[in-house]
Amino acid sequence: MDSTPSPSSSSPFHQVSSALGRYIPRGGAAAAAGPANARGDHATRQRVPDNPAADRQDQILGVISLDRDLRITGCNLDAPVFAGLDAVAGSPFADLLPAGDVPTVTRRLRQVLEIGEAHVARIQRLRRGDGSELVVSLSILPAAAPQEGLTVSVIAMARRLHLYAAETAIGTSLDIGETAQSLAESLLAWGDVAAVDLDFAVWTGEGVTEHAQGRIRLRRAALVPDRAWPEGYVTPGGDLPSDASRLLAQAVRRDDAPQPIVIPDRQAVERLLGSQRVIRALVPGDRSASVACVPLVLDGTPPVVLGLAEVWRRADRPFQDSELFDLQELVARTAHHVDLARQHQREHTQVLALQRRLLPRTGGHTIEIASVYQPATPDSAGVGGDWVNSFPLPDGRTALVVGDVVGHGLGAAATMGQLSMEARALLSAGLAPDEVLEHLDETVTLLDDAESGLAAGYSALGSTCCIALYDPVSHHVALSSAGHLPPVLVLPNGDAGPLAVRPHPGLGAEFALREPFDVHTFGVPPGSLLAFYTDGLVEDPALSIDEGISKLADAVSTVHPWDALQQAARHVVSVLAPVRRRDDVTLLLARMIGYRKGDTATWRLPARDDAPARARAHVSALLRQWNTRSDTQDDVPLLVSELVTNAVRFATGPVTIRLIRAGGGHGLLCEVGDTGNGRPRLSRGGLLDDGGRGLHIVHRLTTRWGVRWTDTGKVVWAEVAR
Which of 77, 366, 560, 678 is the most exposed place for a label (fewest CB within 10 A)? Predict the structure, then answer.
C-alpha cells in the first residue's frame, strides 16, 4: 500500500517532487513518489538510466515527507546519487543521519514544526545502508495546510557545480568567521570532517608576512559538521597547540613553497603529530584515519600562507588525485576572499578601537556615567561615526557630548575622532557649548572642502552633535545642539520626556543658511537621569521618530536610583534594539549626583576696595568649619584675596566668590566671577614690574587654574590640594 500522501498542488512535497521529473529520465528509475519508493525498494532505487553518464550531473534532487513525530511518510529519492539511502516509510528520519548529527538536526526539525519558518540550505551528511555517507544541501520546509508535518528537500551537487556554488557562496561576506565557515561547509563534500585554521594575524587583521611563517600561530576558524566533539579537540575559537601549528606549517611548506599534502592513514598521522595531546587536539575521532591539508595561499612573491584547510576521511575512503586537485582548486579560488575579510577586519578593528577609545570611562564623584556602543551588522559598510564622550572639566563641571558623523568606515571614524578631540579641547579651554559648535561647524566645512576628502569620496556635511555641561553646584545643564535628537530627561519623581530643544541644522550648512546656536538651560535635581543617544537606537521602520523617542523615554524611566547604571544601559538597548541594526546604536546615561549643600558656599560682594578683606574673612571662617589643614587655611584666603583684588581692579559689577569642597580628596575649588572681559595671563615680568604679580602667586598656590567665559563676564577658577 502506498504510504505517500496525496498532497495538494501547493504543498512543498508536491512542488519539489513534481520538479524531479525534469531531472530523472523516463523509464530509467521508478516513477516519482511511487509505491515502491514509499516502501524503500532498494532494487528499484538502485536501477540506473540507460545512459547514466549523460544524466549524472542532473540527477541531484530528492524529497522526503515527515509527520509531526519526524517519521518518514513518503519520499522521492529515485536519482542514482541517492542509492543506498534507506528512506523506509514509517521509520524515523534520524535513521538517515550519522549518530553525532541526530541531536542538532532533530532540534532544527522541531523548530520548523513549532515556528513554521523554513530552514534552508544546511550542509548535511546522510548515512547510506552500507555505512558510507552522502553530503547534501538539506532544506526543511513546513507542510502546506491542511496537512501537518515537514517536507525535507535534499540536493546532491555534482563536483564541478559544487565548486562553482561554493566559490559563489564563500565570497558573499566580509566577516572572517563566516567566510571560513562557508569554506568548511563546502569542503565537507570531500570528507567526513572539515576544518579551517587561520594564522592568528589574519584574525586580528594584521598583515601576514613571509618572515612570520616560521612562527605561525593557528586558530581554528571553522569546523563542520555541527556536533559534540571529544574532550581536548580544538573547536572554533580555540588555538591549536604551538607544536601542532609548527608541524602543520612545516608540512605544507615543502621545498620552501606551500603545497597540499595527504597523510594517508592513522599510523602516519600519529607519527607526524607525535604526542597524544596533539593527536587529541587535531584528530576528530577514532574513525578518522586520513587527512588532506591544503594551504590557503595569498599569491605574491614570495607567496604567503594565511592558514590551511583540513579534510578528514575514514580509512576505507582514500583520497584520489582528482579529489585532491578539486580541493586545491576550491581553496585557491577562495583564499583571496579570506584576505579581503582580513583587510576588512583590520579596518573594522581600527575603527572600533577608536570608537571604544572615545567612550567615557568613569563619571566622577558628582555624576555617574554608563555607555553602550553596538556596531552595525557585519554586512554593512563597517563601523560608523557615532560617538559619545564624557569628561570632567577643570572647573568642576562635567561635559557630555554625543555626535553622529555621516557614513561608515575609516573616513567617518577619522572625522569622528577629529571632531571629538576638538570639542574636548575647546570645552576644556572654557568655551560655552554654542561657541564650541560654531568651531565644529567651521571644521566640518573645511574638511569637506579639503582635496583629500573629495578624493576619498567622503563628506561629513550634515553630521550632528549635542553638547551639555553639567554644573554640580547649581544642578543645571547648559545644552546646545546641532541637528541632533534631543536628550531624554528623567526627573527623580519619574517624569520622563525629551528636552525641549529648538531644532537646528546639522554641522556644515551653507553659510547663508547658518543660524546662531542656542544655549538651553535646564534644572536637573540630584537623582535625575539624562539619556543621550544616536538615531540608530530610536529609528524603527514601523514607528515614527517621535514614537521611537517616546519608547526610549519609557524604557529609561524604569531605571531605579539604586540600579547599576551600566547594566541599566544595556537593558535599555536590548529593549529598543533587540537585534542588530544596519546603523550603529549608541547610548549614554548620566545620573546626576552633584555636591551636597554643606560642601559649597557662595558669596556676592560689591566691587569695592574692602572686597578682598571681606572675602578672606568669609573663606577663613568656612575653612575652619571644614577642619582643613593649617597650610590650606593660610593659602586659600591668600589665593581668594588675589583673585578678588584682580576682579575689583578690572571689573565694574559685583564679584561672586564660590568655594567647593570636592569629594574623594580631590581638593578645594575656588571660583571668582566678575563682569570684566579681560583675560588674565601669566607673563614673565621683571623684578620691578608689579603687573601680573598676583597671578604668579595664584600659579604657585594652586595645582591648576584657568578661565571660563559667561554671558556677563568671566570666571577665574583655581584648584588647591587639601
Answer: 560
DSSP 8-state code for residue 31: P
Torsion sign (Cα): 536, 540, 541, 547: negative
C-alpha cell at 629: 589643614
pLDDT tens for each residue of 532-556: 998 888 888 788 889 999 999 999 9
Cell numbers that stand for 421 in this block = 578631540
Q: Where are the beta strands (DSSP E) in 264-383?
A: 288-298, 304-314, 367-374
Question: 716 and 699 in contact (C-beta within 8 Å)?
Answer: no
Phi, psi dihedral angles at 306 (to 5 degrees) = -85, -20
Q: Are strands 714-720 and 668-674 parallel, antiparallel or unpaired?
A: antiparallel
310 vs 184: CA distance, rounded Å: 9
CB within 8 Å of 94: residues ≥ 6 apart:
70, 102, 105, 106
Length of the chain as a residue count: 722
Label residues 336-373 b or e (16+ Cβ within 10 Å = b). ebbbebbebbbbbebbeebbeebbbeebbbbbbbbbbb
Q: Give the pLDDT confidence of 124-141 residue by residue, as tens digits.
A: 888 888 777 777 888 899
CA 362, 364, 370, 376: dihedral to nearest 10 degrees? -50
The string of pLDDT tens digits covering residues 579-629 is: 766 677 889 999 999 888 888 899 999 888 889 999 999 999 999 888 888
For cell 584657568, what's the residue? 706
For cell 566671577, the residue is 673
Q: What is the DSSP letter of 665?
A: T
What is the dihedral angle through the alpha carbons of 434, 530, 564, 357, rounded to the nearest 10 degrees? -30
Phi, psi of 649 (to 5 degrees): -70, -35
Helix (H) or strand (E) holding 405: strand 398-408
Element (H, E) at 201: helix 200-204
Q: Distance of CA 22 to CAs 74, 98, 132, 634, Å?
A: 20, 30, 28, 100
d(CA 691, CA 698): 13
